[in-house]
Amino acid sequence: MSSLVQSVDWLAIAPPVVAAAVGLAILVADLFLPDARKPLLGWTAVAGLAASAALLLPLLDHDRSTFCLTGSPHACSYTADRFTLVVQFLVLGGALLTALLSVTSLKDERGNLPEGEFWFLLLSSAAGAALLPASRDLATLIVALEVASLPAFALVGLRHGDRRSSEAALKFFLSSVTATAVSLMGISFVYATTGTLYLTQVADRLPHVDGQFHTLAQTGVVLTLIGFAFKTAAVPFHFWVPDTYVGAPLPIAAYLSVVGKAVGFSGLILVTVVAFPSYADVWGPALAVLAALTMTVGNVGALRQQATRAYSAVRLLAWSSVGQAGYLLVPIAAAGYADDPQKAVGSTVAYALMYGAVNLGAFAVAALVGRTTSGNRLADYRGLYASNPLAALLLAFFLLCLAGLPPGVIGLFAKVTVFSTAVDAGLGWLAVVMAVNVAIALYYYLQWTALLFRAREGEPVKHRVPVPLTAALALTGVIGVVLSGAPQLVLRFTATGLF
Amino acid sequence: MIDINESVMQVLLAFVVVGPLLGAVAALLPAPPGLKGKSPEQAVLRHGVTVTGVILLAAIVLALGFDHDQASKMQATTDISWIPALHVRIHLGVDGISLPLLVLTALLTFLCALYSYFKPPAGPGPKAFVALVLLLESGTLATFAVLDLLLFFLAFETVLIPMYFLIARWGGEGRERAAWRFILYTVLGSVVMLLGLLLIGIKAGTFDMVALATDNGRSLSASVQVIAVLAIGIGLAVKTPMWPLHSWLPDAHTSAPTVGSVLLAGVLLKMGTYGFVRILLPVAPHGFHTFAPYLAAFAVVGIIYGSLACLALARQGAKGDLKRLIAYSSVGHMGFVLLGIATMTATGVNGALFANIAHGLITGLLFFLVGALKDRTGTTDLDTLAEDTGLALYGKAPRLGGLLAFGAVASLGLPGLAGFWGEMLALFGAFRPAADLDRGAYLTFMAIAAFGTLLTAAYMLAVVRRVCMGAVPEPGPHLDGVPQRPLLDDVRTYEFAAWTPLVALTVVAGLWPKALLGLTDPAVQQLLAGGTR
């Protein structure tokens, strides 16, 4: 008889574990550090995230699995394959850039934000987000989803005595919890019909579900998807986004727009492609409609932002992130129609990598501008080129990447891969909807870009750029430019299977 | 003509495409010591002239080194892998179809840079202006040089942002609106085009234009070809522009700065028609065949519509804008190009390619002239200019008047000038279209298009009458023996420098059409028979 004790491959689970451990250490250290030394915590967090991202390197050589069933049906709860590593890289890299932005914004908001708690929550959420793509059973998946989300609610509402901030957190919390509850119910239905939580086993057993349980299984599949659709901020689960982004500290808005989405779409990919492939005829069309609605609503929402309204820049980025979520969903929907679904979802991963880098870059510039103006209105960006040419050029580049027009070459090719999955899957109508959306989105992205180079009213304000912000800008800028020259670096995930 | 090593040719072509891009980046950097010039503005404008000059030189050497006996063969080819995941290869090459367009682009951009050096555009500093013009040049040259569908799309999109900013920042009245219309129309068109390109690439398994052209649509089913041609055709038709998708063009031309108008008309519109010839004809012949009669019909409507719009604008009291008038005349001229392509015959396509080049030269010249007129009088409104009797340019500025009259008669297709051959051949093509097209329909199209040439003559002559002729006011009394200054400055030296090449080439192409047709004909024959080698 084989042993019942599972052996643990510590190296495989190192990235999320290191992030969580550093988070705990910071929480404890916060108690003993004098106020003057608090900035040390921030740099420890940055170092911790960099270390956990670096720990992905030794995992590159081959796929590893751990927490496996010791019995004969081989199934594991944690797998570090290519998909996991790429998404973990995206999540940890995104968290690292968020941390760089936060160092400055914590310094600026001295006293408003409790430092120790902030870093602890950020790192815990990052650890949960890094765990999620590696999860290969439904229970771990839900746990990871909650570990990633719960600290995020707190982060949104962390600002002392800010009503808008707490209101945003509450909105975010209530809607998210409802979605998770629905998702849990779906999982219980799936468990009831298949008798297993392991994704691969669910995939094997779902087609053979008893006829009378068919409806139950189908309902379970749909309900499970809802929780993840919420995380990607797909319509109609998007309404919390603009208010939450505006209410949250800016780096946290950036974090939600990239890492929060990564959590959502990687969960969606896992449940659709790995667990429910036999129900492709259910989730394929559903996701296609969801994608079309999401991009349209997001882009139209962004279009309606008025430049002079308070926080219009953040609001625009929030709505645009909803629109971008729509593009991210297209390949997953296409996977429901494709012969090789794994190849199709590679486009989502590639698009997310591009989106993560340039969107965080755009938020970095927004953080820079937000330091000198209180409102972070679009109108505040007028004439940025005159006062800070490099930041203006970078923001222009990031926005054009998001719009998908040269010189943002990587944005263009990322869109091309998404289009090609839709065309390949025969989703012509979705491709046309997306084409119209690209044109709509261009309008507001380009309007913002044009604003940067307009003549400024009044004296230009010189921005002194703090070191962490410079680092974040440089990092995202270099990634964007390098990827534009060598798009293959991210697009290769579209050519090969990820699992 | 001269024997140049193939690898040198390769480098030359790659340089022609990448050079302006590097130049654009360099324009944004501060000038290095020794090249500072009199002021930063002067230095950057000079930088623009230098870079475009070098590119023109490289393009001319490329044209000289081109083996004219094998014009149907792709030459100076580079083929390296870039994005294996998408099967995108950096595949460059020129044949008899793309070479003339390449040289035309390099020439017009150089002339624009030269013109701007002496007459900096009104608006914000010239630094960004030069960078944008160079980026635009890179995009257009790349469009004509690449042989990969996705690279073609990339190049096609590259020109949008620079042209948007050129119009929106250095343009005249109504520039914001015009720039938006331009970019939103073309983006929507080109994204739809992308869908068609992807469809072809996915179904045929390659994005390589040479391979696809050699395949000649054999690996694409009929329905795929029809859908792809429809999608790609819409994108290209917006760019060309084809009636009824042309409505962005008059606004864009009216508001754009002189240099922007010249490049828009001279080069950017050609990207659309080039796409028809390079992609649709050889890659999806069956699909194109389905749509050819409709394309021809739209083209003919465009010819008549453009001419009638011009006639209306040229009328006294219509408050017609000269730039808008030339823009509408472009719709008509591009109608002839499309008609030629839609015949699917060697004669018609050759005519279309010829008319392409001729339109680039002549309309480029006309926009330069109208821009000069605007600098001198402050307006392009025909009624304000001509008042009741006519502007009398012949009397006030005889050389400018002469050039304008030259441009007008060249545009109306006077035999002996460049405008004649292209439209002539397009009409010939329509007289005897490809064997399986309905000849009766094409004969009707031909008749209507021929009537269009008459209308063109009518409005062009009306413009000449109102702008060049008229009563010269009595010279004022001499003050202290000094004769009064003439009312308008005549052509200046730098203007001569910028315009003479266009005039000379218009005459040369008119008198010696073989120089151009000899290049395009073998390539076109090859293309219609089944792809490029």
From TrEMBL, chain A:
It is found in: Cell membrane; Endomembrane system; Membrane. It holds the Pfam family Proton_antipo_M. GO terms for cellular component: endomembrane system; plasma membrane. It is a multi-pass membrane protein. Residues 135-439 form the NADH:quinone oxidoreductase/Mrp antiporter transmembrane domain. Its EC number is 7.1.1.-. GO terms for biological process: ATP synthesis coupled electron transport. It is an enzyme of class 7 (translocase). Keywords: Cell membrane, Membrane, NAD, Quinone, Translocase, Transmembrane, Transmembrane helix, Transport. It catalyses: a quinone + NADH + 5 H(+)(in) = a quinol + NAD(+) + 4 H(+)(out). GO terms for molecular function: NADH dehydrogenase (quinone) (non-electrogenic) activity; NADH dehydrogenase (ubiquinone) activity; quinone binding. The chain crosses the membrane at residues 12-33, 40-60, 85-106, 118-135, 141-158, 170-193, 213-240, 252-276, 282-304, 316-337, 349-369, 390-414, 426-446, 467-490. NDH-1 is composed of 14 different subunits. Subunits NuoA, H, J, K, L, M, N constitute the membrane sector of the complex. NDH-1 shuttles electrons from NADH, via FMN and iron-sulfur (Fe-S) centers, to quinones in the respiratory chain. The immediate electron acceptor for the enzyme in this species is believed to be a menaquinone. Couples the redox reaction to proton translocation (for every two electrons transferred, four hydrogen ions are translocated across the cytoplasmic membrane), and thus conserves the redox energy in a proton gradient. Belongs to the complex I subunit 2 family. This is NADH-quinone oxidoreductase subunit N.
UniProtKB/TrEMBL annotation, chain B:
It is found in: Endomembrane system; Membrane. The keyword Phosphoprotein does not apply. The keyword Iron-sulfur does not apply. GO terms for molecular function: NADH dehydrogenase (ubiquinone) activity; NADH dehydrogenase activity; ubiquinone binding. Keywords: Membrane, Transmembrane, Transmembrane helix. NCBIfam families: NDH_I_M. Belongs to the complex I subunit 4 family. This is NADH-quinone oxidoreductase subunit M.
